[in-house]
Amino acid sequence: MTTADYVALALFVLLWVALNWITSSTRFFNRPSLSLAMNERRREWIYNSLRRDLKMIDTQILSGLQNGTGFFASTSIFAIGSCFALLGATDKVNAFFSDMPFVFNGGRGAFEIKVAGLAGLFGYAFFKFGWAYRLFNYCTILFGSLPMREDAELDPLRAERAAERVIRMNVIAARNFNAGLRAIFLSIGYLGWFLSPYVFMVTTMFIIIVLIRRQFFSDARLAIMDIDMS
């Protein structure tokens, strides 16, 4: 491990933390992120459901959210297993990298540290996806406690409190899901470290720029924004 390796790793962590912060709790160039805008759409969805007696569509949406989260949780587990398999073949892989031109080979110890870090990244993603899966399950239960349309009209304050509980739980679950998904995306940039710390810095910056563009400057964001919010 060289000084450049430590600098690249510190830059990776710093940009990761900054990305989580600006996409979850602040504005960027006075623009709300795609994630924050979607929170408003979640609110609209739940309040609309109060005006429906038949909520099969809503339960299907909740099931889709939970199934998607479960898919990524399973994928993270497979990725962790692949990292441990890679550790078992350290000598072969390290020899392969040693023969490649323009690749900085730090030796067996550095390679194992990098693989362990990659496994830790996928482990973080798994815990985020696992917690999001459980929270979406809780959200389904809270959604089942919403009053029927007639009851909501008779007691709107009670209906509003019940809806706010569902919304808060759904937003928290989505926040954890998004954190896990960002870790998966950033793992692509992390792979650059196996070539050299300088490639690591470049790939990290590239992934961060792509994710910021998607959150603040993408067509997907414009598609869900109100005119006065864009």
Automatic annotation (TrEMBL):
The chain crosses the membrane at residues 71-89, 110-127, 190-212. Signal peptide: none annotated. It holds the Pfam family DUF599. It comes from the Bacteria. Keywords: Membrane, Transmembrane, Transmembrane helix. PANTHER family: OS09G0494600 PROTEIN (PTHR31881:SF6), PTHR31881. This is DUF599 family protein. It comes from Rhizobium calliandrae.
